[in-house]
Amino acid sequence: MNPSQLPGERPRSVQPVARLRGEPRLPGDKSISHRALLMAALAEGRSLISGAGDGRDVQATAGIVAALGAHVERLAEDGLNVNYMVVSPGVEGLHEAAGVLDCRNSGTSLRLCSGVLAGLPFFSVLDGDDSLRSRPVARIIEPLRSMGADLCARRSDSLPPLVVIGRSPLRAIDFSTRVPSAQVKSAILLAGLRAEGRTTVREAIATRDHTERMLRSRGVEVRRESADESGGGAVAWTLEGGVRLSTLDERVPADPSAAAFWLVAGAIHPDAQLTLRNVGVNPTRRAAIDYLVRMGALIDEAPAGGRPADAAGSREADGVGEPLADLTVRTSELRAVQLGPAEVAAAIDEIPILCLAATQARGETTIRGAGELRNKESDRIAGVAAGLSALGARISVSGDDITIIGPTPLVGAATRTLDDHRLAMTFAVAGTIARGATTIDHAESAAVSYPSFFTELERLRA
Ligand code: S3P
Hints:
The protein is an alpha/beta fold. Helix content is about 30%, strand content about 25%.
């Protein structure tokens, strides 16, 4: 069953909001929360993870870590975030799970767990909901097989469920990823920890580097080689296998992908000022902020409260090696922007909400080479185009390219989320400026990454 197909659930209606003011609470970064749980499972002893996002995706990874034999305890929770304690027997002490490992809606759980399981010499099956069963796994199978693990999947090894029979030790590889994917890169690096020798992953376009930063914080030497030191271009990551990870005691930064919904809401709404605290502004995750500023969004970036600033003016989250900032956005006059494939890759999760921003921007926005969006929780190109068109936007799709002409006043209508959390939140933000009511089917899917999203929206309205 899809996560948001709750019996009796009715479409949610969002009415326009006269004024948007306040400080929406944000979930802990989803990418970092998954990685923290997995690294806690690999490290022998007691780890503490504060402020992990409590969306259903991260809960799926927590469930998998527990099924493999680590003790996972929820120490405190507030309906948005959770503090975890993980006590692990260490990587050698993890064991075969009695049942299928349920990734639910989470592609990150699927790909990152595959990398961990490749180095564990037992049988595992990774499965999830209908959406997960349409996510590509060949990209994972190829490198992990060449490291010596046995993997197979449905439809000639292309779709989950995915079977992994791990091996220890693995063979180190030097691998060039075919699509820009931090999930694939991370799976290989996590498997590389269990390989004999040096594992290298090469990316033509740099993707988010949380795994690399967190491994470094855990005592692993991860080397980076790049032709272009400003990031963005080709990069190679290398680590030596056989290293033991140290335990964690970390606070997870607020999720910049969740923050993006409020940044766009604040910029496109005619009477808005919103502040977002302790947002992760890692250079490999902050692209959406930079594109919005390029579009004319009035976003002030200040060092996150209570921590010493580094030279760049940002501050670091405890122990995860991630820069943080407080962001304030105000009503803005936006202009169109042109994004190519590398720029899309850098903001892969934010493209739907950036499409909404483009409907309110003067001129013609083009987003080229966005094909990977079709491989997410839904076909996000089709989904965002259908939803925004229903609201009256001028948006067209040609192949993997999206064109949006603005500004266009939006008019409330029925939108379809395709059970995709990021589409649900995009259409809800659109509803705050659309004339009349915007209805969102399966709005509950927002809880995949942002359980209190609609509560925050109500609070801002008040
Ligand atoms: C993620 C990487 C991205 C992103 C996903 C989270 C991660 O996927 O879309 O939401 O945590 O590594 P790909 O790297 O496969 O594009």
